[in-house]
Structure to design on (175 residues):
C-alpha cells in the first residue's frame, strides 16, 4: 500500500522520452494548445487543471505546468527529454555528457576539486546537484568576466581619444 510519504513509482531512475514519428502531428497540436492555454492563463490569472473521467478537476501546480510546457515544446521540436531525479548519481561519462564536455576534462575538474564526487569503489560517481552547482557557478563566473572584459574594452576605447586620429594597424606597420 502506498502512502503520501512514499516515493512515487519510478522516481529514483532516469527516463528518456523520444518523440515518436507517428505522433508528431499530435505533439505539435498539443504544443499549440499549451501555448494558447498559457496565454489564456496569463490573461485571466487562473490555473490549469486536470480533469478525471468523472469530471473532477484538480489544479496543476505552476511548477509542474512549466515542466509539462517545456517537455511538450522539446518533443514538438523533435528533441528527446530525459527526466532525472535530483538525487541521482551519474557515471563520469554521463556527467560529462550532461555538461557537454569530454570525460577526460570532467575527470580533471573532479581531481582539481571543482566538482564534488564520490568514489565508493574504483569508479567515480557524481551527483546531479553537484553538476548543477558547478554549471551555475561557471556561468556566473563567465558572465562576470565578460562584463569585466566589456568594461575594459570600453575604457580602452575612451582612452584612445579622437577617432579621426586613430590609424589602422596596417597603416602603422607600413610606415
Amino acid at each position: 500500500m502506498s502512502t503520501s510519504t512514499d516515493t512515487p513509482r519510478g522516481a529514483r531512475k532516469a527516463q528518456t522520452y523520444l518523440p515518436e514519428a507517428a505522433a508528431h502531428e499530435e505533439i505539435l497540436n498539443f504544443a499549440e494548445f499549451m501555448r494558447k492555454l498559457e496565454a489564456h492563463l496569463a490573461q485571466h490569472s487562473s490555473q490549469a487543471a486536470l480533469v478525471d473521467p468523472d469530471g473532477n478537476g484538480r489544479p496543476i501546480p505552476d511548477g509542474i505546468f512549466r515542466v509539462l510546457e517545456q517537455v511538450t515544446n522539446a518533443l514538438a521540436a523533435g528533441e528527446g527529454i530525459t527526466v532525472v531525479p535530483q538525487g541521482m548519481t551519474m557515471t563520469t561519462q554521463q556527467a560529462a555528457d550532461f555538461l557537454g564536455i569530454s570525460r577526460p576534462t570532467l575527470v580533471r575538474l573532479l581531481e582539481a576539486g571543482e566538482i564534488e564526487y564520490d568514489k565508493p569503489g574504483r569508479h567515480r560517481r557524481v551527483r546531479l546537484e553537484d553538476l548543477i552547482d558547478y554549471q551555475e557557478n561557471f556561468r556566473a563566473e563567465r558572465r562576470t568576466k565578460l562584463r569585466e572584459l566589456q568594461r575594459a574594452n570600453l575604457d580602452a576605447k575612451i582612452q584612445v581619444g579622437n577617432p579621426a586620429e586613430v590609424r589602422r594597424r596596417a597603416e602603422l606597420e607600413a610606415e
